[in-house]
Every structure is written in C-alpha cells, then in structure tokens.
Amino acid sequence: MKQKFNIITSTCVPLPLENVDTDQIIPARFLKATDKKGFGENLFRDWRYDKQGNPIKDFVLNDPTYGGVVLVAGKNFGSGSSREHAAWAIADYGFRVVVSSFFADIHKNNELNNFVLPVVVSEQFLQELFDSISANPKMEVEVDLPNQTITNKATGKSEQFEINAYKKHCLINGLDDIDFLLENKDKIEAWEKKNER
Amino acid sequence: MNTLFDKIWDAHVVQQIEDGPTQLYIDRLYCHEVTSPQAFAGMKQRGLKCLRPAQIFCMPDHNTPTHDQDKPIEDPVSKKQVDTLAQNAAEFGLNHFGMMHPKNGIIHVVGPERGLSLPGMTIVCGDSHTSTHGAMGAVAFGIGTSEVEMVMASQCILQQKPKSMRINISGTLGKGVTAKDVALYLMSKISTSGATGFFVEYAGSVVKDLSMEGRLTLCNLSIEMGARGGFIAPDEKTFEYIKGREYAPTGEEWDKALAYWKTLKSGEDAVFDKELYFDGADIQPMITYGTNPGMGMSITDCIPTLEGMGEAAQASFMKSMNYMGFQPGQQLLGHPIDYVFLGACTNGRIEDFRAFASVVKGKKKADSVIAWLVPGSWAVDQQIRMEGLDVVLKDAGFEIRQPGCSACLAMNDDKIPAGKYSVSTSNRNFEGRQGPGSRTILASPLVAAAAAVTGVLTDPRTII
C-alpha cells in the first residue's frame, strides 16, 4: 500500500452523484475480512452488480468507455461510516486519485493513509471536468502533487489544491504516520509524565 | 478561541508538527471486531506491543447475533472476526468484554454506562459513532483502521485540528419530541455535510434539559451532519450520571476529578468559527424519506419537490426517490410499513425502551409488522427487566432480543428484506444499510412504537 506519489496523468472514471456514502463504496456485509486484500472486487458492489451477481451494464465501472486511475465524484464523497475498507476498496481497485468538490473528513484521512490522493476542486472545475469527460471519455487529467495542481487537459485549465506539507512529504516519500509516531516516543512519555497519566 | 473544545484539545497536544497535523494524546481507545483486525495485523507485522494496553477496551458488537449468543455464531466469517478480536485482545493484553460477558454490548452504549467515558477525555474508536461519548463532555471522534493502529502503537493520533461550531437550541421541546427528532431536524436544516470540518458543541436550554440518554442520542448523530464530533459541556446531570459507575473515579480521586470537570465549559468570551441558532418549539416528530439522514421532515409534512434543485442534486434526489418507492411532494402519514427496529447506539438505551413501552402499553403490535427490539447492552437488558418493561412489551406482542448493533447495519442475521419498509431508530438510511434493497425510515422510539402498533406511519402525538 505504501506507494510513492508524484505526478499522475490519467483518463478518468466519472461518478456524478452527490453524497456517495461509504456504505455504497463498500457495503457492510463485505467488512467481515480480517485482512486488507481483495476489497476492490466489491467496490460499489450494489451499484455494480445485480442480485444475481451479474454486472449492471450502465454502471460506470462496467462501461469499457471509461477507465484510468482517477475517480471523479460529486460533492460530499465518502460520508457516513468511518470504515477504512472503503479506502482499501478504492486503492485495491486501482484508483490513485479521487477528485471531488467536497470530501467527508474521516474518509479523506483514510484515503491519505492508504496513499490515495483526495483532490478537492471548486464546483466549477468539477462540473467542467464532468463535461470534458462526457465530451471525450479519453481526455486526461494531470495531478501534480509536488506542485499541488490538477489540470483538465481537454480545456487546459488548472487549479491548485490543498494538502499539508507533512502529508505531502509522506505521500511523496512513501512514509506513514506510525513511522513518524514511533520516532517520537520520548515526547509521548514526557507528556504523560507532565500530565500524570 | 477559549471554547471547551480548545481547552480539551489543547490539554492533549503532545506536539504541533510544522505545517502539518497535531500529535494528540488519546485517553481511551475502544475497539470492536470490524475495524480492528487489520490494525492488530499491522502491529504484529511491525513487531509492536500496545504502548498503553490498560487504556484500550475491546468488545464485539457488529456481528453478534441477537439470539442464542450462548452458542457459537453460525456464520463462519462473522465467527472468525469475533474470535479474532478475542485472540488479539488476549495477545496484546487488552480489556475485552466478549459475547455473553455481562459488560458486553454496543461499544458506544457500554462506554458511558460503565463510567469508562469521562469528561475532559479524548476518546477514539474505529467507528464514526464514537461522537456519542461527547455527551459526557469528552472530545470523542471516529477514526479509520490505520489510525486505530497509530493509537495502539503510540497512544497518540495525528490529526488536523477541526474548526469549532456551536449549535444553540433555545426554548423547550413539545410533547412527543425527543433528542432523536432534534438531531434529524438539525440534519434536515444543514444537510449531511453542514458540519463537515467542524467539532460541534451543543448548547441552549433544549440541550440542558435533555436527559443523559437524550444527550447521548444527540451527540451520536453528530457525524450524520458531517461533524468530526459533537459534545455537551458537563454539568450536574453529567456528574450525577457518572458517580458510582464501575470505572468512575472514587474517593479522593473523585473529588479531584470533579473539581477539574467543573472547569470544563466554554468561556464567556469564547469565539467559535461558526454559530447556529435554532428554537426547540419549531421541532416536530421527524421521519426521513430518502437515502441519507439529512433527507428528513416533520412526520406531518410532504416530501420536497424538485423545484429550485440543481441538475446534480436532482439526479441524486430522484435516485433516492426511486429507491424508496416515494414521489416528490408525497405525504407519508398513513403509509404502510413492514418492520420496526428499536435499538442501535443511537436509541438502544433504557430511556428508549421506556419511551417505546409507554406508547405500546395496553395496545397490540399490528399483525403486518415484524418488530425487532434490541437493547444496547446487557446492562440495558437487565434494567428493562427490573422495571418490568419486558412484561409491558410482551403483553403488547413484542419480544426482546439480545444486545448488539443488529439491524442498524445488518452485519448479523437481522436483515430487512429488499423492498420492505423499516421504521428504524438507528442512524443511517443509506441504500442497503439494513440489508440489500431495504428501505429505511429513520425515526424516534415514539414514532417507531406508533408505527409498530398501527402498521402505518403515525404521528405518535395522536395516540399518546
């Protein structure tokens, strides 16, 4: 999972729905695993397959017109349950970037902790991106983490996105938070002593 | 500035990373079986032990069946997950309340009722409804599994400090209006993302007047407005509730703790990043009509029409209407329902059973309705029996099941069949939440009880 991140250029998979909750990303009945493998198979399970397990043709993941490692979704993506399985499913399916105009807090952290980059763009940029993909499913976006920019290559328009310097460093260098915390054990013990824990 | 949230947060800062998150000390970590196995696996892979095992409490709740808990779980995958938690807790030396243990129950019901969640604490769990514990005056929030592993390893978490919001609810609540209605009302006003990025303090006379159970319900639903967490400043009611509970401090420790807890309030000069004001008199018994908890209305209202909605919003709205089998503009009063679920970390406490029993007392369950009444813990179950509510419920045709999360998210056998309508006291009406194809209408225990005895959506005020 610790995949180093730099510049990604890819076609997009559009999901122009708002309030996509983590129960849709991965339904609860698939949370019974005790490891992190294979969740991609059940990404968007109930939108992707019918009751008999046959692919639902008009769902975007089943449509060969669309592909790539960038998922583009409507606002308030990842709301609801804190299940990190949702981020594991997105990463396991092969997505490296999720673009939306708004993310739910816990899910956003979960994506970052699994080396999937959540890119927050303006409503207008998002709408234009959906329009560009609809006009040409083979159009690409460029996501440049070092410069914190996303570019719609069909229109040439770019936007800056936010990420804190610490997390950016972690993603570019393939480091996680536990590596950091373990190096700071003395600070934890000092805090406990001072606060009588 | 100088909000209670600032006070508790600042008191737990180990360090502030430059242009990065805060390293925050965590007093209490709760673990359930669904979101912990991969964290334990990660710990083993790194060859780590838990830094502060005494501060970690584990219990299964999501997979547990609500019958025959004394027998092995039939579903082998559920059984493996529950067994894995027991093994991991033993291996890492953590507190564990297994199935059938008298202290077992839904983690967010057990924490407060055992005196494990206390004012001024930082509390986390791999579960978005960890916000529940905020009712005790704690900073409590849900986290992902990577973060669970972080806390196991270091008793700390790296987090960006959220912004602060105060939601003031003045006045009083009318007859038949509960904490659940207050929460559903707030979500219907500010949407499921209205508080995203914020930590919410609930204040005002309505909040003060709520019982501890009611406060737990209100804080539980903070995440459904997108909030990182929600809490209520502790007061005499809080202290009274905690005193004498099993893990609460005693003797000199109690006096010392109480003196500190009494300082836990936002300053007169506190500045919040956002403040919202509501009037309790405007709140009616609520139901949801759609597929997120923000799609709620007074039980006597009509579903909104598409007028004034943007294109993307219309698509999402109509997807939701089609799923639920409803029409924009439709009134739902009198609409037949199939299932009633009383329980979950939202409404599985003693007061919820009292409320439900008060409506069904002397009446009979409608023949067309299947009702699942699931206490939030064995302690709640015991209290129900002590108060004789089990007899009232039985006379009305209801049976009490064994504790667990149950039909809130249907990880056990308690699944609502496809296409069926469920009036549920749980927290989410997402597509498929209570089983593939299930149609959930969120409501208070009073509304659920009224539906259970009439078989249709009914304003509880007309029958109590």
Descriptive overview:
- The complex is a heterodimer of chains A (197) and B (464).
- Chain A has helices at residues 22-25, 45-48, 85-93, 105-112, 123-135, 165-173, 177-182, 185-194; strands at 7-15, 70-73, 97-100, 117-120, 140-144, 149-152, 157-160.
- Chain A is α/β, with parallel strands linked by helices and 197 residues long.
- In chain A, helix 4 (105-112) links the parallel strand 3 (97-100) and strand 4.
- Chain A is globular and about 60 Å long.
- The two termini of chain A are 34 Å apart.
- Chain B has a five-stranded parallel beta sheet with strand order 5-4-3-6-7. Chain B has a four-stranded parallel beta sheet with strand order 11-10-9-12.
- Chain B is globular, with a radius of gyration of 21 Å.
- The mean pLDDT of chain B is 97.
- Chain B is built from 16 helices and 18 strands.
- At the A-B interface, helix 4, helix 6, helix 7 and helix 8 of A face helix 2, helix 3, helix 5, strand 8 and helix 11 of B.
Keywords:
A: 197 residues, alpha/beta, 8 helices, globular, B: 464 residues, four-stranded parallel sheet
Mean pLDDT reading of chain B = 97
Shape, principal axes of CA atoms of chain A: globular
The stretches of 5 or more residues of chain A where confidence is low (pLDDT under 50) are: none
Major sheet summary line of chain A: 7 strands, mixed
> How many DSSP E strands of chain A?
7
In percent, how much strand structure appears in the residues of chain B?
15-25%
How far the N terminus sits from the C terminus of chain B, by CA atoms, comes to: 45 Å
Low-confidence stretches of chain B: none
Subunit arrangement of the protein: heterodimer
Alpha plus pi helix count of chain A: 8
- Give the N-terminus to C-terminus distance of chain A in angstroms: 34 Å
